[in-house]
Amino acid sequence: MLLAAATTTRSDFEAGTGWTLRPEGACLGEVCLPLPASALDGDHVDVRVIAEHTGMPLLHDEQHGIWALGPWPGSGRTLVSADAPELRLPDLDGNEFSLSSLRGQKVLILAWAPY
Question: Is residue 97 part of a domain?
Fold first, then answer.
């Protein structure tokens, strides 16, 4: 879930994550994780508190003012590591390009297939 701030509305949080915020905590299907009272203030959700108590990864890019909340580790949809495998592919000129040449930089990999 991408956010412009570390707080959001209850409805946006629930729509973006699939979690339901109930009195007993954050619930996803049969799983409910208790949350402290500081996680909710009326309709406002403090994503930092929820990330801390659920184990969801939360990243902040200060330069662009973006927050990113990742999936709950118990969902089975998380990566084991953030290390990408070494990729070596030809560039548009036919020269070999290595993904590791971009180490330390933010990289977006877009894959497309016609089938």
Answer: no
| Terminal Cα distance for the chain, rounded | 28
Alpha helices in the chain (DSSP H): 10-17, 47-54
Question: What is this structure's pTM?
Answer: 0.63
Tens digit of pLDDT for each residue in 8-66? 999 999 999 989 999 889 998 888 999 999 999 989 999 999 999 988 889 999 888 99
Residues whose CB is less than 8 angstroms from the CB of residue 31 and which lie 6 or more positions away in sequence, other chains included: 74
Structural domain includes residue 83: no
Residue 69 lies in a domain: yes
Tell me how many domains the chain contains.
1
Eight-state DSSP code of residue 103: T
CA–CA separation, 21 vs 33, rounded Å? 10
Distance CA 41, CA 48 (A): 13
